[in-house]
């Protein structure tokens, strides 16, 4: 005979509460397996991304479990890493099933008793038509916005007599980084801004922009790196070009270089700190279809400075 246990609480009988759902494990297992297989090959994140012809940021998302690769991309992983057929497909299917189950909302428990309503509140609002309640809500919102603007104007009026000093962003770093570090792996690319652009122009048979060298600056890291941005013209003219990115700091003759084959996606160099001095970026494309003179350089850049506030 099956025994039924009921827990008594005062004059009521309460059922045991359902257990919390277990965390998602299959997507993380797939992500860990991708990372483990890459490390077994001794490949860095950037090299593996170049071999698979995807961006480094996408591969990082897959290894962190933030995204699940498509079925054809799983096949690319297996071929590139020389894995047995269907070595990763099973983990992908389990991850998709588990993530779909996690997104399904749990059924809400039925209420045992109707919510109590305050008689005073019901008497105040129940007899008002919907248009009047909407008008009152809009009026309250407008009054709140007017009060906020008035307080801000009063504050700026009192503080406007003191001019803020002009301070370079490069003097206020909040992240501890060093030269020759990857901006994506250190998180410096999260607040990166463009401070300079130079076009790579091919003069034959006519003047054509095939790529750009873009200087990027991170205020939180006070560092600069160079980014290679291809155009569609490069895919038609030189799809197998060799890309060389150079970031150089003339103050101490320090430089970092990145060289790799063009794989149809943007590429970037490692960083140089902007505090010791400005940084010059150079992009060189090596291919018989674009030679000679397929290169471009930026000016010596040190990052933007905020505009000081003026007295009012």
Largest sheet: number of strands, sense, barrel closure = 5 strands, antiparallel
Give me the strand/helix succession: EEHHHHHHHHEEEHEEEEEE
Helix content: 25-40%
Overall shape: it is extended
How many helices does DSSP assign? Answer: 9
Structure explained in plain terms:
The protein has 312 residues and is of the alpha+beta class. The chain is 34% helix and 21% strand. The protein has nine helices and eleven strands. 23% of the residues are buried.
How would you summarize what this structure contains?
The protein is of the alpha+beta class.
List keywords for this structure.
312 residues, extended, alpha+beta, disordered N terminus, five-stranded antiparallel sheet, 11 strands, 21% strand, disordered C terminus
Sequence-ordered SSE layout with sheet pairings:
Layout: E1 7-9, E2 12-14, H1 26-41, H2 45-52, H3 56-64, H4 71-80, H5 89-103, H6 119-125, H7 130-159, H8 183-186, E3 193-202, E4 208-218, E5 223-230, H9 232-237, E6 242-249, E7 254-261, E8 267-268, E9 272-273, E10 280-286, E11 295-297
Antiparallel strand pairs: 1-2, 3-4, 4-5, 5-8, 5-9, 6-7, 6-10, 10-11
């Amino acid at each position: 005979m099956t025994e039924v246990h009921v827990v008594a609480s005062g004059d009521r009988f309460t059922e045991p509460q359902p257990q919390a759902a277990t965390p998602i494990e299959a997507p993380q297992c797939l992500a860990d397996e991708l990372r483990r297989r890459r490390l077994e090959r001794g490949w860095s994140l950037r090299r593996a991304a170049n071999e698979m012809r995807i961006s480094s940021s996408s591969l990082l998302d897959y290894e962190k479990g933030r995204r699940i690769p498509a079925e054809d991309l799983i096949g690319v992983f297996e071929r590139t890493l020389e894995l047995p057929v269907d070595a990763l497909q099973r983990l992908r299917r389990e991850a998709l099933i588990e993530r779909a189950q996690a997104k399904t909302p749990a059924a809400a428990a039925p209420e045992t008793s109707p919510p109590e309503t305050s008689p005073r509140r019901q008497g105040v609002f129940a007899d008002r038509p919907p248009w009047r309640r909407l008008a009152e809500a809009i009026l309250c919102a407008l009054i709140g916005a007017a009060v906020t603007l008035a307080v801000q104007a009063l504050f700026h009026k009192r503080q406007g007599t003191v001019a803020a000093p002009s301070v370079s962003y490069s003097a206020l770093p909040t992240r501890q980084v060093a030269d020759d570090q990857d901006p994506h792996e250190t998180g410096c690319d999260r607040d990166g801004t463009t401070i300079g652009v130079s076009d790579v122009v091919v003069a034959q048979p006519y003047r054509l922009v095939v790529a750009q060298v873009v200087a990027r600056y991170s205020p939180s890291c006070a560092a600069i790196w160079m980014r290679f941005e291809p155009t569609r013209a490069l895919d038609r003219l030189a799809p197998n070009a060799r890309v060389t990115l150079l970031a150089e700091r003339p103050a101490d003759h320090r430089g970092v270089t990145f060289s790799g084959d063009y794989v149809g996606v943007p590429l970037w160099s490692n960083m140089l700190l902007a505090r010791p001095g400005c940084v010059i970026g150079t992009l060189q494309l090596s291919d018989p279809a674009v030679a000679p003179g397929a290169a471009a350089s930026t000016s010596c850049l040190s990052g933007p400075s905020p505009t000081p506030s003026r007295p009012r």
